[in-house]
Amino acid sequence: MRLLALVALVLLTACGSHALAPGTPAPVPVTATGTTDGVTLRLDLDRATLKVGEVVWATITIENTNDKPIRWVGGGCNVPGRVTANVPALSEYGHNWDYPFAELKKRLALVSSPGYLPFLDQDAWDKRAQGGRACTADIRVNELAGHGQLVSRHAWDGTIGGAPAPNGDVKVTGSLDMDDIVRMVGSGVSASVTLPLSGGAATRVSPGQAIDAAFADPRVASWVRARFVQRGNSEAAAYDVNGGVRLDGDAWVITAGQKSAPAGEIEVRVSAIDGAVRSYVER
User: Fold this and answer.
1) What is the mean predicted confidence (pLDDT) over 34-56?
2) Crossing angle, helix 218-225 and helix 207-215, to 10 degrees?
3) Which CATH fold topology does 26-90+114-198 show?
4) Which of 23, 105, 124, 153 is the most exposed place for a label (fewest CB within 10 A)?
């Protein structure tokens, strides 16, 4: 018995077991499934809630219930399926402006939305201390035999770029891109669950909503309109204005500038908590 107990202890240690403190309830798993054209994807999370700093593991199980093979599309590292988190406090688009302002909003805030982020697949997660894993940008088409199965695991610790993600319900989606050779179109299968996140940032205003607050300020609107130009047959817009949005503590910092006449730059700080414009600086 002593030998068996010792062997069990060694195995648990070698496998990286994370023993729960006495009185700590075990994480409750959550599952969702989706089916497209006979291909089923099951998404399993090992916990139903997440606190920033903890790790949630997502397992994707893909099964081809057809008698014939299907083709699926992977990236450079060719991981079957992917898992993404949609953080509403960062991904909410906000107001749909008329064209001149809508065009600028897309360039300022929506080029790289921080509200949608990928989980790391297991290999990349295991190598994160070494800087992660490099994958090529090519697209690979693979075949899954009839009644075949694929499994991949992915992880997230509730942070974005090393900083805590905002509190709230996070939509976690597992998906697989498929190549439909009969209809010559791409298709896919996915499943989603809601994962409440706690212990994170108090941010409740997205970059898109912060842009909305800035555009609603008469000073910003006037500055932008003064830089409208006509290009071809399109409506006049601020095509020569460039800038971006970044989070600084509890405020979104929106910068916009133009080098050609009328040259100038503005910086607008908008509260990430209540969306109020805190400051406007024109240079």
Assistant:
1) 97
2) 80
3) Immunoglobulin-like (2.60.40)
4) 23
Domain ranges for the chain: 26-90+114-198, 204-282
- Interatomic CA distance for residues 245 and 108, integer angstroms: 7
Task: Supply 229's token pair.
Answer: 């130009």
Count Cα atoms within 13 angstroms, Cβ side, for 153. Answer: 8
- Tokens coding 274: 């209540």
- Checking if the pLDDT of 270 tops 50, the result is yes
Q: Rounded distance, CA 64 to CA 71, Å?
A: 10
- Calpha distance 144→162 (Å, rounded): 36
Q: pLDDT tens-digit profile of 72-102? A: 999 889 999 999 999 988 988 899 999 899 9
What is the mean pLDDT of the segment spanning 26-38?
90
Task: Give phi and psi for 218, each to the nearest 5.
Answer: -55, -30
Per residue in 200-245, pLDDT tens?
A: 999 999 999 999 999 999 999 999 999 999 888 778 889 999 999 9
User: Residue 281 forms beta bridges with which residues?
Assistant: 267
Can you tell me the distance from the alpha carbon of 76 to that of 217, in angstroms, rounded to the nearest whole number?
Answer: 45
Distance (Å, rounded) from C-alpha 16 to C-alpha 69?
37
Q: What is the 3-state secondary structure (H, E, C) of 136-150?
A: CCCCEEEEECCCCEE
Is the alpha carbon torsion for 161, 167, 173, 174 positive or negative? positive
